[in-house]
Amino acid sequence: MTAAVRSLPRGVVTRYAIGSIGTGGFATLPGLVLVFYLTDTLGVTALVAGLVVTAAKVWDVVIDPWIGERSDRALARTGTRRTWMLVGAVALPAGFVLTFAVPAGLAPAASGVWVFLAFLATATAFSLFQVPYIALPAELTPDYDARTRLLTWRVVVLSAAILLFGAGGPILRRSGGDDEYVGYLVMAVVAGLAIGAGLFVASFTAPRGVPAATGGGRRSIRAGYVEGLGALRRSASFRALLAAFVLQGLATGMMLAGANYVAVWVLESEDALTFLFVALIAPAILCAPLWGRVARRIGKERGFAVASALFAIAALTLVGMLWAPGPWVYVPVAVAGAAYAGMQSLPMAMLPDVISHDARAHGIGRAGSFGGVWTAGETAGMALGATLLTIVLAATGYLESTGAADVVQSPTAVAGIVVSFSIVPAALVGASLLALRRYPLRRSDIEADAAAETAVR
């Protein structure tokens, strides 16, 4: 077992982890500021802002399974998934900058259309990278613990990236002073270049091998979705793991989008946003390796359940902000951050186990198709989390604003923000534990898969 773990070169682990600078930045910054940018700078109503973000993400969900199948075909035809990843890495920064480059004075309706189209292009570029990236661990090593190691270090970098972009993004945004339009543009340029650089480096993790097929001619777009649905239909392990991860994506997406509102309207300090992210992510960086040890001792699936339960309890505690908002909130946020590391690293380490087990059971390797459906589910969860927040905001009477205009939120609207940051996410994570109970794979299953693969070689 030790030899198998050491067979994964440190350089591969490092380059793969660097990709999370990009994935963490893209997952964090739009989720954190985009809805707020639409409602509190461009004057778009909360419900419409949620629809703008969700519509772009829905497109992502639609194309991800197709990209996954095409990535599998590219691997068979050329021996690598690298080309698709490089295209996404190069194209994403331009789309990201355009998303936050809405001219001052543009009407709210036109501003919403601008953001929608630019973010649509950005999300497409991200999917070209992300889907093959998710597929790689199953192909880089067959070892149960080596996959945990690979994904653990990815989550360490991911957590650092969330901290960097989550805390640094708002600071860059304020660099424009009273001109919020300039501040958002500066933020987008710096962040876009950093995201693109992380994706570009990680693209070279994709191995180059001998093509396994000539490509077999052109295939219809429908074929991509057939492959993705086939992966879902035949793998009970995949269905259970994906359901749990999507529900948790809803919870974390809702909290991510709501953090800005909590800082401004509950804690009454824009600086509180930075403190919230430090409290959340610093423990995640420290605890990610610990969850790897937990997985080696009790199994990934049990470690994932423990992390999820801990997160749900911490989130539920935050409902106390309804009566006594104050610095105490950073304590349960820190506990949630420690749990979040396990909620990210362990299911991601379980996914390649699911993929390799399916390949052994059915005699086919469809890592790209699995990655496409996984990315679609993850994207949908995060996007719908932001949408769920905007529904609660609209229902509780949240007032949008334009530029630096001052508004006063009602107690009901503030209560809606708190509930969106505590009770609802806790309930969603609780539901994810019910889905996780149906996950059947254990260490012995994956070790048998690895032994069978070694025997074939």
Structure write-up:
The chain has 457 residues and is mostly helical. Helix content is 80%, strand content 0%. The protein has one domain: Growth Hormone, Chain: A. The protein is built from 16 helices and no strands. It is globular, with a radius of gyration of 21 Å.
| Beta-strand content | under 5%
* SS summary, helix count: 16
Q: In the CATH classification, which architecture applies?
A: Up-down Bundle
Shape: globular
Number of domains: 1
The parts where pLDDT drops under 50 for at least 5 residues are: 1-6
How helical, in percent, are the residues?
over 70%
Q: Any idea of the CATH class?
A: Mainly Alpha
Largest sheet, strands/sense/barrel: none
CATH superfamily: MFS general substrate transporter like domains
CATH topology tier name: Growth Hormone, Chain: A
End-to-end separation: 17 Å
Count of DSSP E strands? Answer: 0
Rg, rounded, reads: 21 Å
Structural class comes to mainly alpha
Question: Helices and strands in order, then pairings?
Answer:
Elements lengths: L1 H5 L3 H31 L5 H33 L3 H18 L8 H33 L3 H30 L6 H24 L17 H14 L1 H31 L4 H28 L1 H18 L12 H33 L4 H29 L15 H11 L1 H14 L6 H14 L1
Helix pairs in contact: 2-3, 2-5, 2-6, 2-7, 2-9, 3-5, 3-8, 3-13, 4-5, 4-7, 5-12, 5-13, 6-7, 6-10, 6-12, 8-13, 9-10, 9-12, 9-13, 9-14, 9-15, 10-11, 10-12, 11-12, 11-15, 12-16, 13-14
Summarize the structure.
With 457 residues, this protein is mostly helical.
Question: Which keywords apply here?
Answer:
single chain; disordered N terminus; 16 helices; Growth Hormone, Chain: A; mainly alpha
